[in-house]
């Protein structure tokens, strides 16, 4: 099993910064990856944001199973939290995200006005682990390029207030991740979706693990994507069948495992193997 521990010092500082800045905030947007809503959560988030109103954003919903996403929306609704599936590329769900930000604090804002306070923008903080699409989301909500984006985890730096559409103002803070992955399954799922750099682990092993996951419930997706009559008996056999199907053969007729692994990971992350969710609400104890 791969052992992944990744907690740069800046993340500890970020957590302290979040707690400090929360005093200025009316509502928290918690950004999750719709394919792995459990693994893309920071387990300390409840403790960090305490009793602040919260809106959950299920990002990359276009890559996740629609049925599974609906179940997650219901799961959060039962907890008294609105969860909104979003696709930042098409913009689907963004209007609802803006409207909900104002709706959850409407009574508080009206009470302040009654007390004679001046009307002000609703102040929002968006929290999420690195590489869950935070910068792209902020840019879409602001209607302009306001946050640094990058395809490497954790490129957002510093803190700044960003004016969003509507009467909203957002405090941009860096993404946060927990100190250690106590559950290696969590680490694997983060790696499958690209939230952890591929450079820190063996890509061949990662792709094999992904195939193992997909063979349990999504073997049809593998067969259709790679034109296979059936998946193999083992993840390795399936990987070799994919290598053959894609012409990933090197001199002497050997399989090019690394090239095959990169194809599988890229195509899973791009939704080409299908709209797949790796976690369901029923998995929560």
UniProtKB/TrEMBL annotation:
Its main location: cytoplasm. The keyword Amino-acid biosynthesis does not apply. It comes from Alkaliphilus peptidifermentans DSM 18978. Keywords: Cytoplasm, GTP-binding, Nucleotide-binding. SUPFAM superfamilies: P-loop containing nucleoside triphosphate hydrolases. GO terms for cellular component: cytoplasm. Belongs to the TRAFAC class YlqF/YawG GTPase family. MTG1 subfamily. GTP binds at residues 59-62, 131-136, 175. InterPro entries: G_CP_dom, GTP-bd, GTP-bd_ortho_bundle_sf, GTP-bd_ribosome_bgen, GTPase_MTG1, P-loop_NTPase. One of its GO terms (biological process) is translation. This is Ribosome biogenesis GTPase A. Required for a late step of 50S ribosomal subunit assembly. Has GTPase activity. The keyword GTP-binding applies. It holds the Pfam family MMR_HSR1. It comes from the Bacteria. GO terms for molecular function: GTP binding; GTPase activity. It is found in: Cytoplasm. Residues 14-179 form the CP-type G domain.
């Amino acid at each position: 099993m791969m052992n992944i521990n990744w907690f740069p010092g800046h993340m500890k500082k970020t957590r302290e910064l979040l707690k400090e800045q929360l005093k200025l905030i009316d509502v928290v947007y918690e950004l999750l990856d719709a394919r792995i809503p459990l693994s893309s959560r920071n387990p300390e988030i409840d403790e960090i944001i305490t009793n602040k109103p919260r809106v959950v954003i299920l990002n990359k919903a276009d890559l996740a199973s629609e049925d599974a996403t609906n179940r997650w929306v219901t799961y959060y609704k039962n907890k008294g939290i609105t969860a909104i599936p979003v696709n930042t590329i098409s913009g689907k769900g963004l209007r609802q995200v803006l409207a909900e930000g104002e709706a959850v604090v409407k009574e508080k804002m009206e009470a302040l006005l009654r007390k004679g306070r001046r009307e002000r923008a609703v102040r929002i903080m968006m929290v999420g682990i690195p590489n869950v699409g935070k910068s792209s989301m902020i840019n879409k909500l602001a209607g302009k390029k306001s946050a640094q984006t990058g395809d490497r985890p954790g490129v957002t730096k510093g803190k700044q207030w960003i004016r969003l559409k509507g009467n909203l103002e957002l405090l941009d803070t860096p993404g946060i991740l927990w100190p250690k992955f106590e559950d290696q399954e969590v680490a694997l799922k983060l790696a499958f979706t690209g939230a952890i750099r591929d450079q820190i682990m063996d890509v061949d092993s990662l792709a094999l693990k992904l195939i193992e996951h997909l063979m349990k419930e999504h073997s049809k997706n593998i067969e259709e994507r790679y034109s296979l009559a059936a998946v193999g008996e083992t993840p390795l056999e399936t990987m070799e069948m994919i290598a053959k199907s894609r012409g990933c053969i090197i001199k002497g007729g050997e399989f090019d495992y690394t090239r095959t692994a990169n194809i599988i990971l890229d195509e899973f992350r791009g939704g080409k193997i299908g709209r797949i969710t790796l976690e369901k609400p029923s998995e929560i104890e």
